[in-house]
Amino acid sequence: MTLSTVNKLKKLYEIDDYLWIIETVKLLKERRFNELDVENLIEELDDLGQERQNQVKSLLKQIIIHLLLLEYWHNEYERNHRHWQGEILNFRDQLNDRITTNFYNYLNENLSIIYKKARKYVAVKSGLETLPKECPYTLAELLDEDWFPKN
Fold first, then answer.
1. Of 84, 53, 66, 55, nearest to 121 (Cα)?
2. Claim to verify: residue 19 and residue 85 sit in the same structural domain
3. 3-class DSSP state for residue 25?
4. Is the pTM of this model over 0.70?
5. CA 15 to chain centre
6. For residue 94, what are the contacts with CB-CB under 8 A and spacing of at least 6?
7. How many domains does the chain fold into?
8. I need a labelling partner for 38 at 20 to 30 A (CA). Which of 8, 24, 47, 98 fits?
9. For residue range 30-60, what is the model confidence (pLDDT) as tens digits?
10. CA–CA dist 130, 128 (Å, integer)
C-alpha cells in the first residue's frame, strides 16, 4: 500500500507538480511519512532554498544598481532621482521582508560578486566609466531604509 502511494506521487510529480505539493502537504499533516515521495521532496526543498537565495541576491543587486545610478549618473539625476529613490525603497522593503541571518551572511560573503554584476549593468546602461571598482556601500547601508549616499 505504501509503495503504491509513493509510486502514484512520483507519477503525479511528473504530470502536475502543484497537485503533488498539495498531496505531499496532506501526507505531512497526517504524519504519513512512509508514503512520501522523498526524492522529489528533497529536490523541491532544495529548489525552494535556491529560489529564495536568488530572490535576495537579485533584490540586493537592484538596490546597488539604483544607488549607483543615483550617486553617479549626474546627467540623469534631475530627471530620475525620485524614481531611483523610490525603487531603492521598494527593493529594500522586499529584501528586508525576506532577510534572515543566513541570507544576511550569504549576501555579506557575496557582496563583491553581486556588486560587480550591478556595476557592469550600470556601466552599460549609463556609459559611465568612473564607477568604483569595489563596492562603496556596506551591507548595513544597503539594507537601511533611511540611508542614501550624499551627493
1. 66
2. no
3. helix
4. yes
5. 28
6. 59
7. 2
8. 98
9. 999 999 999 999 999 999 999 999 999 999 9
10. 6
Q: Where are the alpha helices (DSSP H) in 30-138?
A: 38-72, 74-98, 101-109, 111-126
Pair 71, 134 in one domain:
yes
Q: Which residues span the domain enclosing 127?
A: 49-143
Residue 62 near residue 93 (C-beta atoms within 8 A): no
Residues 101 and 40: their CA atoms lie apart, in Å, by 27
Long-range pairs, 22-27, Cβ under 8 A, ≥24: none
**Residue bearing cell 525603497:** 89
> 76-101 pLDDT, tens per residue?
999 999 999 999 999 999 999 999 99
Q: Which amino acid does the sequence have at 107?
A: L
Q: How many residues does the chain have?
A: 151
